[in-house]
């Protein structure tokens, strides 16, 4: 199987993945009880959020609450940091405002960069590479959760759940790099797919459990020809797609 065929196949698969992710993440999810699916942790309540989901107790000023700690036992409960207030959460149907919560913390993803743009060098013009690669991403991420409950009938309700986030971090991975005599400064007389290590920084947009964004990275070959490669430790700009693991 030729190298050109492999690159074309990889580019086609990556493009299909991008289209599929956009289709899957561009709309709001409909769930029966979205509030119970929130992960445990500390949340900031948006100033525009409805606070009636703090179902009990009734004796505290809900509008003054800015942060809550959610934890799971037999059901989902909340604590107000710095106060003795704790209770249960429950969505009420028909509210004009959605429940909007924000959560920040460590982020761990895996992603691939199907498109790498390499700037011009002394011996090669600018290039768009589609070599296979995979990376681990570690960084900081802030997510926004929006939940709204509507009544379909007297006994049936549905929750509309939206999750989106942004983040920044570093990545490291492994991939392939096509090399030939020109990219090796004519120090070889053959061409092959070399193993390369990728590393750099990335800014991502998270939609549900998927992520995409822009990365700035560097490659270095791992074989004996690495010192002759024109792209050794040279920057590139890429578009990546990935999956959130935490």
Task: Explain what this protein looks like in three dimensions.
With 246 residues, the chain is mainly beta. The protein has one domain. It is built from 1 helix and 12 strands, in the order αββββββββββββ. The chain has one helix spanning 3-25; strands spanning 29-31, 41-45, 67-72, 76-79, 86-88, 99-118, 127-129, 133-151, 157-179, 192-207, 210-221, 235-244. Strand 10 and strand 11 (210-221) form a beta hairpin. It is elongated and about 80 Å long.
Defining traits:
mainly beta, single chain, 246 residues, six-stranded antiparallel beta barrel
Number of helices: 1
Structural class: mainly beta
Q: Strand order across the biggest sheet?
A: 6-8-9-10-11-12
Q: Mean pLDDT score, rounded?
A: 84
Q: Total number of β-strand segments? A: 12
Shape designation:
elongated
Quick summary of this structure?
This protein is mostly beta strands and 246 residues long. Helices cover 9% and strands 50% of the residues. It has one domain.
Task: List strands and helices in order, with pairings.
Elements: H1 3-25, E1 29-31, E2 41-45, E3 67-72, E4 76-79, E5 86-88, E6 99-118, E7 127-129, E8 133-151, E9 157-179, E10 192-207, E11 210-221, E12 235-244
Antiparallel strand pairs: 1-9, 2-3, 2-6, 3-4, 4-5, 6-7, 6-8, 6-12, 8-9, 9-10, 10-11, 11-12
């Amino acid at each position: 199987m030729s190298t050109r065929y492999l690159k074309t196949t990889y580019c086609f698969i990556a493009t299909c993945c991008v289209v599929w992710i956009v289709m899957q993440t561009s709309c709001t999810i409909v769930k029966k009880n979205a509030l119970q699916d929130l992960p445990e942790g500390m949340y900031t309540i948006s100033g525009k959020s409805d606070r009636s989901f703090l179902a009990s107790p009734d004796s505290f000023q809900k509008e003054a609450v800015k942060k809550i700690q959610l934890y799971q036992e037999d059901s989902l409960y909340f604590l107000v940091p710095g106060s003795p207030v704790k209770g249960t959460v429950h969505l009420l149907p028909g509210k004009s405002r959605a429940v909007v919560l924000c959560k920040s913390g460590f982020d761990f993803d895996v992603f691939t960069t199907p498109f790498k743009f390499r700037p011009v060098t002394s011996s090669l013009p600018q290039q768009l590479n589609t070599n296979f690669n995979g990376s681990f991403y570690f960084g900081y991420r802030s997510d926004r959760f929006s939940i709204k409950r509507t009544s379909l009938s007297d006994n049936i309700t549905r929750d509309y759940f939206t999750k989106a986030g942004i983040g920044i971090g570093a990545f490291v991975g492994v991939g392939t790099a096509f090399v030939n005599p020109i990219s090796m400064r004519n120090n070889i007389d053959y061409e092959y797919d070399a193993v390369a290590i990728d590393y750099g920084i990335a800014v991502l947009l998270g939609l549900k459990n998927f992520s995409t964004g822009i990365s700035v990275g560097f490659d270095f070959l791992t074989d004996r020809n690495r010192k002759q490669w024109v792209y050794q430790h040279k920057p590139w700009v890429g578009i990546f797609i990935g999956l959130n693991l935490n």
